[in-house]
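agent: user wants the structure for Exocyst complex component SEC15 from Phycomyces blakesleeanus. delegating to structure tool.
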Amino acid sequence: MATISEPGMKPIPDAVNKISLSTPATTTGNGPELTFSSTLDDAENLEQLGPVIKQITESGKQSAFLDQLDALIRKKDGEIERMCNAHYQEFVHAVDQLLKVRQGSVNLRRKIADVNTGLQARGKHLTEKKKELIEAKRVQQNVDNAIEALKTSLVVLELANKVNQQLDEKKYYSALKTLDGLEHDRLREISNYSFTQRLEKGVPVMQNTIKGTVTVELKEWLARVREVSREIGSLAMQRMQERQDRWRTKTIENPKLKNLQHHNVNSAIEMVVNEGQESSIVDEVSIDFEPLYRCIHVYDTLGKRHEFKTSYEEDRRAQANLALSSPINLRDGNLGPFQTLLQDIVGFFIIEHIILHNTSEFRSQLNKFNPKTNKQVDALWEMVTSKVMMVVSESLKGCRDPELFLRIKFSLLIFIQTLEGFDYFVKPLQETLLALFQRYSELLINQYSEVFEKIVQEDECMPMTVEKEDELKEVMQYTRFRPDKEFLKLHGFPLRLPFSKVFPTCCRDVSAFVHQFYQFAEGFSQTHGEMDDILKKAVDSLLIKKVNAILLKKLESTNLSQIVQIIINIEFFESTCPDFEMLLMETRSFHRSGRIHLKATSTFKETRRKAEKRIFELVNSKLDEFLELSEYDWESTELQRQPSPNLQDLVYFLTNVTNAALLNLPESIKSLLYFDALEHLCQSMKALLLDSDQRTITEIALHNFSIDVEFIEDFVRNLGDPAITDTFLELRQLLDLAMSENSEEYLSPPVRNRKYNRVQGRDVIMLFEKLLRESPSTNGLNQQQKIRRRSMENVARVLRSVHIGGR
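agent: tool returned. relaying tokens verbatim.
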């Protein structure tokens, strides 16, 4: 293909040569239509055409381009003409064929037009029917929508009516659930209606109405609960008292459970032994908690549980304060108001216990093993217990009546054990009881100290007499005194007992003191060991500082009969101390072992020795008085045949002591008393004989003295006590040696050991010197007397020379 070029004009790309002009199927007013050959379908050539046309336009060469394009067209026309000439016949044939086809197409078009006319006629009718159908469907849809809206509205209205019906039936929780479903589900489905909007505004109002209604009903329920709390508390404390009594009876009557007596009710041991046998008071509480549970459900549904918990806590606290506001005075002994207060508290907290365990996350309570957390129920409990402890402390300030302490203790113990069974923390109350116990024990000790002091002080120290058997049985109940049947048959009633009234009375009071002590100690197993020690010291204090001390002071008396009775009483007290120890061991806490030893035992023993010594002193003092009245004439020349009158009075006194004052003394003490008295008498008479102030003794005076000694020796032998037979042996051997015809035999050891083994050498020297100082005329002595005198001189000289003074 030739290219067109002109001076100053860039060559036209070959792509332009691919543009051809063809005869169009239709013509427009603008002339023939320019089309592109299939060669221009190539994307690359089309992309090149744009820049070429742009370049021609920008350079103003459009006419040149058109001329060149016309030349190209003419060229292509020539080529077409030549091609047509070459294929003319075929072209004519094709034209004939096309004419035939054209005729067929005209016929076909006519037929199609007829068909189309018929189809249009029929289609118009169908179109009209279709429009009618569409309109009917639209109406039907509107009707369906209306029906559905009416159904939904009816459901909403039915739910609204149902809410009112549920409110009338007091089904508040169900009403709230219905309102919730109405608000969040049904009303949203028909939210475009005006009545729906009014219902939406009414839902919160209805919720508040329900909330207010259940709150009012709860207030009324709380008022009713307050009225029945006292009844519940009274029943619970009564059940606990019965349980205590059953446990006490069971441990006393059953030998296998005897060692469990000191385990308290609510202890692990008691619960194991009585497992399945004790019923809970909770099962007997007939309170309808429905108003409370309904209120909880309603507030939970409204999402306002915290608000309700706070309100309920304030109401319960107000009720607790109201119960605690009543004035209570325990000093007047009227425990009625105090018992009522405890019953109110027990009932109050039993109800709290039931609510705590029957609701979830409504009321909270701390663990009794971890009391550091401050929970709702326990905050109330702490407030109430503090008030109870303050009431007890203030009311008993300055009180001196142990019986009142004991009554209050019993009330508090039942109160504590009842609520301990419901897992309340009772340690502060137990500490209050322990403080009460300390004051109680002090008061009890002081009270019994006064009682014991009065009993011992007022005792007349005379043997007690019982008029009949019942009185004897009462004495035997508290003492170990057990007279045999022969004794009772022999003496009969009225019966004179060896001890005075102070002994059985004190024994009875010691037993009463111990039991009163442990009456308060019951329920204190955790501190029972300390109480055992306190009681032991208290019993020792009563026996030592009161009984023994006063008896010891009474020993200053000079009445021998009283001293003897005191000895007998002390001996009985001493022998009864093991019984007191056994009583303490039987009543002490079970887990303690070992024997209890009272210091009073040794104290009574020591006092008994002092009392015996006091008797010895009194008897010896009386003997000294008799001897002081005996004025011996050591230079007498008159031989007497009878003992001296004063010595006879002395023996008469000892006889009376034996038959009267010392009658009830044990034989061992009487024997010791006689031995000491006679030994003292022997030494006193020997001292009279050897008195250094008396330098001379005549043989006749010595003989008269020997008669007195023989009289006493006869008295001693008549007593029939082998232990005192030899009390005057030393004095007798000394007198026999002085009156012997051959006193030199004393110098012979075998003879001295056989006949004068008790005689001391210096006593012999002193007596012989007194006898040798007598200076009768030589003519007044016969030969035998002279020999005897020389013998005495020889013995005295030898004894002085060898210093025999240790015998």
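agent: one observation worth passing along. Residues 1-41, 367-374 have pLDDT under 50 and may be disordered.
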